[in-house]
Design brief:
CATH architecture of the largest domain: Orthogonal Bundle
Structural class: alpha+beta
Largest sheet: 4 strands, antiparallel
Helix content: 40-55%
Number of domains: 4
Number of strands: 11
Low-confidence stretches: 1-24
Distance between the termini: 40 Å
Order of helices and strands: HEEHHHHHHHEHHEHEEEHHEHEEHE
Oligomer: single chain
Radius of gyration: 29 Å
CATH topology of the largest domain: Triger factor/SurA peptide-binding fold
């Protein structure tokens, strides 16, 4: 059974695991490259090369020579080692919960239960521990890339303003609607009697579906639209992709609401809104937060950072001043002088781990120490409020779109700089 991988995990993962589980033992594991403080071994290189060669090959893509393939694969491994070294330096650790969630996702994407997925892996001769280790590596690299590269990309306010005015923005930022329709068609040049008959029919249908008649069954039986055989289901469409009449009808339509009959050149229509997503009109709960950050290093281990933060927490709970402790100890240079004050936060502003702690910390409370890709933190939620964030949400969404468009280019620049600054010794 062929398995597929998504959610950012490399599609070659299972090939790699299969290669590693079946490759012959190496009598001497020669070092082929030194990358900083780590070594790339011959067995690691051989496994990756075997992985590439075992992939199904397109007739249009010819496998390069062994020397070229070896050079390309070795360069990829070196880049991976450098990124993993950075993940270690900033304290990125993939938890068992994250690994388990990734395994569940892989099983779901292959239309299996987790137990069926694991059985399939074992049946194909793969090692689950090895697979989990490779997934953890993939997730660590992704976190490093997101953290570093996104911080390097700066989107100016003027760029956001210009993007929001563009036709492109109207498409990407417009809401998505899942719609059903019932249409009673009109002839190309209808007379008054034909219009009246069609209008009477659509009104009768409207009365029936608003009183509880099944919309999809009614569409199947009476609609003249091309999607009638699908129960009138149009599927998901952005408002910018809808006919102008439909876009007007759904603007104020609630989920599960049915529009009043409306006429287009083709006939009379009623719409049902099954689902809606991406609505920009948002009132959100904001939290006013301050924190203390400690970054693990050669002289401060993870456990020592956690212990220090527990001490700070105890001091504040005993009546100490959180702001003074932040000024004296926090390693977040952007907030330490303000007593760790991060201002008002909105959903999506911080990394998931940080936001999760904010959501689970009551107003006035101080969190237990927790870890993100930036280090170890404690935080305090000082206030909460409801705020209309419609414009802010639009601008943040625009910023995210512009950032994602620059991500790949900036990633390659950063990886080049990473290799230029590193000690790399490739053995002959």
């Amino acid at each position: 059974m062929k398995l597929t991988l998504t959610q950012g995990l490399t599609a070659s993962l299972l090939f790699a695991l299969s290669a590693s589980s079946h490759s012959a033992p190496q009598p001497i594991d020669k070092v082929v490259a030194i990358v900083g403080k780590s070594a790339v071994t011959q067995s690691e290189l051989d496994e990756r090369i075997t992985e590439i060669k075992q992939r199904p090959q397109s007739e249009k893509v010819k496998m390069p020579s062994d020397d070229v393939l070896r050079s390309q694969v070795l360069d990829h491994i070196i880049t991976e080692h450098l990124q993993m070294a950075m993940a270690d330096r900033v304290g990125i650790k993939i938890s068992e919960e994250q690994l388990n969630a990734a395994m569940v996702t892989l099983a779901k994407n292959n239309r299996m239960t987790p137990a069926e997925f694991e059985a399939t892996i074992k049946r194909e001769g793969l090692n689950m521990d090895t697979m989990r280790a490779r997934i953890a590596r993939e997730l660590s690299v992704q976190q490093v890339q997101r953290g570093v590269v996104n911080s390097r990309i700066k989107i100016a306010d003027l760029e956001v303003d210009n993007f929001l005015k563009s036709a492109d923005a109207k498409f990407w930022i417009s809401p998505d609607y899942h719609l059903g329709q019932i249409m009673i068609a009109l002839p190309s040049s209808p007379n008054a009697a034909e219009v009246a008959a069609a209008e009477a029919k659509i009104n009768a249908i409207y009365e029936a579906v608003t009183k509880g008649a099944d919309f999809a069954a009614t569409a199947l039986a009476q609609s003249n639209s091309q999607d009638a055989l699908k129960g009138g289901d149009i599927g998901w469409r952005k408002s910018s992709e809808l006919p102008s009449l439909f876009a007007e009808l759904v603007t104020d339509l609630p989920v599960n609401g049915i529009s009043k009959p409306a006429r287009s050149p083709a006939g009379f229509h009623i719409l049902k809104l099954y689902e809606k997503r991406g609505d920009q009109n948002q009132v959100v709960t904001q939290a006013k937060v301050r924190h203390i950050l400690l970054k693990p290093s050669a002289i401060l281990t993870n456990e020592e950072a956690k212990t220090k933060l527990l001490k700070f927490r105890s001091e504040v709970l005993a009546g100490g001043d959180f702001a003074k402790l932040a000024k004296a100890n926090s390693e977040d240079l952007g907030t330490m002088l303000n007593g760790g004050d991060l201002g008002w936060s909105s959903p999506g502003m911080f990394v998931a781990e940080f936001e999760g702690v904010i959501d689970n910390t009551k107003e006035g409370e101080i969190s237990q120490p927790f870890q993100t890709q930036f280090g170890w933190h404690i935080l305090q939620v000082t206030e909460r409020r409801q705020e209309d964030m419609t414009q802010e949400v639009l601008r943040r969404k625009a910023t995210n779109i512009l950032t994602s468009r620059r991500f790949e280019d900036e990633l390659q620049v950063w990886l080049s700089e990473l290799k230029d600054d590193a000690f790399i010794d490739i053995k002959p």
